[in-house]
Design goal:
By secondary structure, the chain is of the alpha+beta class. Helix content is 33%, strand content 18%. Strands 3-4-5 form a three-stranded antiparallel β-sheet, with no helix packed on it. The chain has a two-stranded parallel ribbon with strand order 1-2. The radius of gyration is 14 Å and the shape is globular.
Length: 105
């Protein structure tokens, strides 16, 4: 997450809140989530199953069912369609997160 550190050092807080970073799922670790949250950086990524909270987040997101449609993040017709939601009140002190995507029809 050196890129995030560079962004936070370079951009003003107001600018940081205006951008949405994309991250490879390998970058989604507890340490990196804390760093992103600490710097108030918004990002989108697939939540890796290796992360302990993955099942909890997926179940909660599906139960809550308050999705914001982001749409396609690519130009091809078969690009996934993304819907997201965030959580800000984790019991275990983990940073907020939550997302979902569906395959294109």
């Amino acid at each position: 997450m050196q890129t995030i550190v560079k962004l936070t050092d370079t951009l003003a807080e107001e600018k940081l809140r205006q951008i949405l970073c994309t991250a490879n799922s390998a970058a989604v670790t507890s340490k990196n989530l804390r760093l992103l949250h600490e710097h108030d950086v918004r990002f989108i990524s697939r939540l890796p199953n290796t992360l302990a909270m993955c099942d909890k987040v997926k179940h909660r997101a599906l139960e809550r069912n308050h999705w914001e449609v982001v749409g396609r993040l690519g130009e091809r017709k078969d690009t996934a369609i993304y819907r997201i939601q965030s959580f800000h009140d984790w019991d275990d002190g983990s940073p907020p997160l939550g997302a979902h995507h569906e395959s294109a029809s």
